[in-house]
Amino acid sequence: MSELLTAFVASAVRTATPLGLAALGEVVVERAGIINISLEGVILCGAFGALVGSTHGGLLGGFLGAVVFGVLMTGLFAWFVVRLHADQIITGTALTMLALGLTGTLYRALYGAGGAALSIRTARPVAVPGLFRLPVLGAGVFDQPAVTYVFYVSIIALWWWMYRTVTGLRLRAVGESPAAARAAGIRIARVRILSLLFGGAMGGLAGGTLVLAQAGTFAEGMSAGRGFIAIAIVVLGRWHPIGVALAALVFGAASAVQYLLQAAGLGLPYQLFLALPYVLTLLALAGGAGRTRAPAALARGDDS
User: Which of 40, 66, 176, 187 holds its CA 20 to 30 A away from the CA of 59?
Assistant: First the structure.
């Protein structure tokens, strides 16, 4: 029983890591008053960047490539939305479609028809001395790839920055009242662009995690809706880094339950198990509606 629970915790944390990374980046973006619907495409670009980077530079090159591709994709979104004042939803949707087509085309062009069988080296778990020996939770939480510990550290670092620093206060001011922030001398466009680039780096890292810490390969469309789920996780977490991390872990646990139910051989269509995490997310969103308050300027598309 203890081994089963440990495996469940490990699976939940592993699934939550890319979601949590993307959601932590998105919470910064949304606190600046922008909703990045292209996050799905950012994650996919990060996954492809990880493949390209790891092909030439190993694991480190892979993660660097993931971040660079994620930032480039989000930089394009920032140009249209912040500089050209394009509609955030339409722009994000269009860029997600662009990412789906572009990564698929480049993948086939660079790796050919046999690219689907391509396998790359993945990051190995790194046990934290002492902590990984804790009963039940130890091995599941503290015997993970290094990128998972980046997720852990990012939770606390982001909370501290957002609520304990002047720049974090400026970020929240821009998301609540751009007019008041401008009156206080805050450069709104700069804050939003930097927030988007940070979100792109985290989304790209999430995509890199899928390739370099989990799948060990790239597949067309492998983001599989994770960008949209990460946006939902931000809402579930009430736009707070710690709440977002907990929501990501809940979704990770739901996915882990899915695997356990499939392994139990209940004789039910496997599509029901695949749908479980998404159904739970919808129920959670419905239950939280009316009790959460988004940043006042979120997705308003203006600076007033």
Answer: 40
